[in-house]
Structures are given as structure tokens and as C-alpha cells.
Write a structure and sequence with these properties.
Strand content: 15-25%
Largest sheet: 4 strands, mixed
CATH class: Alpha Beta
Strand order of the largest sheet: 1-2-4-3
Number of domains: 1
Structural class: alpha+beta
Radius of gyration: 13 Å
Distance between the termini: 11 Å
Number of helices: 3
Number of strands: 4
Helix content: 25-40%
Shape: globular
Oligomer: single chain
CATH architecture: 2-Layer Sandwich
């Protein structure tokens, strides 16, 4: 299952977004979710940068972290992750959406 979580809320701080991210990942793991699509938007770019920096700090915790712009048929991690997900319909696949990041748990 692919769970989608939107952490891009107007007026919220980057710190608040990272807290939402951490909760979303922990909850998804408890629920047995295979992957989480985090919608962080683009805006000023600070939330997206923070999400991806946080992901790098968590190295080894996830099977893969896939930026939306790399979520395509040419990315082995994206293809392998999608093979584990029952519902493969995701409009961001092959669409280079830099406003999302995928976490393969």
C-alpha cells in the first residue's frame, strides 16, 4: 500500500513540517504500509530541502528515498517499490513532480 501524506500547509514552519513527516513515517510503519508519498510542495523550497535533508540523516532506515522528479520507469528503486504496491495508479509516476518525495519503508 502507498500512503499519501500532505505536510505542506501554509504558514507552518519547516520544523512543524518535519514533525508531521516523522509522525507520518512512524504511523505508516505501524500500519504495515509499504511506501509513503510525502507532499511537501515547492513554495520557497525550504520544506522540500528539509524533508530531503532529514531523509539523508536517516540513512539506512528506509529501503529507498525517491525524489518525485526521479520517480519514473528509469529509476530501479521506483520500479522495485512499485512492484510491492498493490495499487500502482499514481499520477506522479513519470511526471517529474519535485513537490513530492517517496519513502520506501
Amino acid at each position: 500500500m502507498l500512503k499519501t501524506v500532505d505536510i505542506a500547509h501554509a504558514g507552518q514552519s519547516t520544523h512543524e513540517a518535519i514533525v508531521l513527516l516523522e509522525v507520518a513515517i512512524s504511523t505508516a510503519k505501524e500500519e504495515g504500509v509499504i511506501a509513503v508519498k510525502i507532499i511537501h510542495g515547492l513554495g520557497s523550497g525550504s520544506v522540500a530541502e528539509s524533508v530531503r535533508a532529514w531523509a539523508k540523516e536517516q540513512e539506512g532506515r528506509f529501503k529507498a528515498v525517491i525524489p518525485g522528479e526521479d520517480y519514473n520507469a528509469f529509476n530501479k528503486d521506483a520500479v522495485d517499490m512499485r512492484s510491492e504496491i498493490s495499487n500502482k495508479k499514481d499520477r506522479d509516476f513519470n511526471n517529474r513532480n519535485a513537490g513530492v518525495t517517496f519513502f520506501w519503508l
